[in-house]
Amino acid sequence: MAKTADVVVIGAGINGASIAYNLAQKGCRRVVVLEKYLVASGGTGKSAAIVRQHYSTETLVAMVKRCRDIFEHFPEMVGGSAGFVKTGYLFLVPDYVLASFRDNIAMQQRIGVRTSIISKEEARSVAPQMDFSDVTAIAYEPDSGFADPYQSTVSYLDRARQLGAEIHQMSPVQSIRVKNGAVQAVHTDSEEFITPVVVNAAGPWANVIGALVNISYPLQITREQEVLFRPRTAQDCPNITVSDMCNAIYFHPFGSEMLVGRGFPKEYEEVDPDRYNEAADPDFIYEVGERLMKRIPSMSESMPIRGYSGLYDVTPDWHPIIGFHSELQGFVSAVGFSGHGFKLGPVVGEAVAELILDGKSRTADLTILSPARFAEGKEVQSAYGGNRA
């Protein structure tokens, strides 16, 4: 027997969960979330979950500024916990981006981000374990840090359920019925949901869903490795979140360990999201260990505890695709987050809910993130390249 829904959200990662909650919170009672496997089992669950505000477009800076506030005040603003830890955040840059870096800091400060350029001496007072000898400039955001990607997603879905939403795990979408240029229904193996609105928040599987309605996204699905290192002593591990452009790594403390991944520039490995190596390569573990020890000499005797690989869904300009499609009424995309999806999740949920219910987002200006921008030659330009945006 067919069920009726006001909106069907495909994908139960951070963005699908946030969209479902915000729709329900704004009074949309018949919200259905369909997840092909388990909650946060795609790119979200293996995210480094860094919450930083250093971006080079005003749109993303404004979005992540609000997201940071929501992550810190999640119990009051949403309910439950996002597992947010305010460590502070350092962005280390080489000389060849210095002019852009200074312009970006000025722009971020104008928007209201609490950030500043600090000296190496000031940076050492924040993280005395770190060697800054090869760094040209340093930005410091005292309010940023990292969160828990699984806990955040579950908290959003728990609140959505309390407001009347339905969450269906192990429910891969098999087809989407379209008639007269408009969405009509979504089918899984066992159920049919009659709905006028479908949100594609399927992350690395975005093109699988898009193909059901003849929509194709310019996405690369890449394998992203991370490693957890155990320091010899707790004092060897700085309590700070870092994007290290000079050394092409990022890291933050995770309990008594340090989570480390590789940043841009690097070789990207394109994979099938249903068939890829979810472990970390031994060569990768060795390489990031060497880079980590260069930045934090006290970690020279640290031990790799475990490594794993997650997924990015990468657009040509490393910015997400968010919005309706003019060729198909009722179909909304929130895909292509290119490694930024977790930190953007809270505002993506607010903006997409407003777009669906009110016809326009007031929380965020989504103009530059339009699904049509690639066909129109309007790719977003950013200062640093790659997933720093």
Secondary structure: elements and pairs:
Blueprint: E1 3-4, E2 7-10, H1 14-25, E3 31-34, E4 50-51, H2 58-72, H3 74-77, E5 89-93, H4 98-111, E6 116-118, H5 120-126, E7 137-141, E8 145-146, H6 149-162, E9 166-168, E10 173-179, E11 182-188, E12 192-194, E13 198-200, H7 206-211, E14 220-230, E15 241-244, E16 249-254, E17 257-262, E18 269-270, H8 282-295, E19 303-314, E20 321-325, E21 328-335, H9 341-358
Parallel strand pairs: 1-12, 2-3, 2-13, 3-9, 5-15, 13-21
Antiparallel strand pairs: 4-8, 5-7, 6-7, 10-11, 11-12, 14-17, 14-18, 14-19, 15-16, 16-17, 20-21
Helix pairs in contact: 1-6, 1-9, 2-9
Question: How would you characterize this protein structure?
Answer:
It is a single chain. The longest helix is centred in the C-terminal third of the chain and has 18 residues. Helices cover 27% and strands 27% of the residues. It is built from 9 helices and 21 strands. It folds into 2 domains: 184 residues, FAD/NAD(P)-binding domain, CATH 3.50.50.60; 153 residues, D-Amino Acid Oxidase, subunit A, domain 2 (D-Amino Acid Oxidase, Chain A, domain 2), CATH 3.30.9.10. The relative contact order is 0.20. The chain is globular. The model has no long low-confidence stretch (mean pLDDT 97). A hairpin with a 3-residue loop joins strand 11 and strand 12. The protein is of the alpha/beta class.
